[in-house]
Amino acid sequence: MHMPALRRVMTATAAATGALALGLTGTTAQAATPLKYAALGDSYSAASGVLPVDLSSPLCLRSTANYPHVLASRTGARLTDVTCGAAQTKDFTAAQYPGVAPQVNAVTADTDLVTLTIGGNDNGTFINAILSCGTAGVLSAGQGSPCKDKYGTSFDDAIDANTYPALKRALGSVRAKAPGARVAVLGYPWITPATADPSCFARLPIASGDVPYLHAMQAHLNAVVRRAAEETGAVYVDFAQASTGHDACQAAGTRWIEPLLFGQNIVPVHPNALGEQRMAERTMSVLGLG
What we know:
The chain has eight helices and five strands; from the N terminus they run αβααββαααβαβα. It is an alpha/beta fold and 290 residues long. The chain has two domains: 33 residues; 253 residues, SGNH hydrolase (Rossmann fold, 3-Layer(aba) Sandwich), CATH 3.40.50.1110.
């Protein structure tokens, strides 16, 4: 081959090799681009009571071991965590505390992923039910169903009348900020077993007939959360099966939720570190991440 022709072949080969290298580099960079991830929600998302505490927002009792941090560490996602203990649906669009911005402010048009738990604090559903039924259980020495007898369908009625439309509005505000994001709405893991466990009364003083009553109320709340999620184009992460056998009546190391009394967290009736880890893993599985 003549030298000019050889030089042309070598030049073309080098150019092609360089283009291929650039293409591969671009593909690698594109594949390695981390998800832009915004974590919203209440104390079940914040992992209130789990150490270590996130000191960037002490009013929110947020943990750096919460499920958003677990998920982000395992996927390499770029996390903005605005989860906050005691958050209600209204706190998505209004400041929960002075200096604590509306949660949807963390969501932008280029957000890839949003996760949240919300709804359990609306109407005081969780705290009112647990405290009311706990008090009634102590006064009845664990017998009968004093809480159900007193409150009947009132908790469920408030969930339908108030929580459901509030959930729709809150999730709609998220979708409006990031129309292209994947939004995952997590259900609440079981607090109580489906039937009474007499050995648990000292830690979770709920009367035997009120244990299934509270379990059914939580199932109703989760069903409403699922409905609102699906109607706003979000993915619902179901814990009904996954958290069975991991309620607050189980032994340490098995339970995901700490009991009302003699638990290991400073905030009772909330997920422990194991629960937050399992919530992250279940969410990743549902979303096909990691």
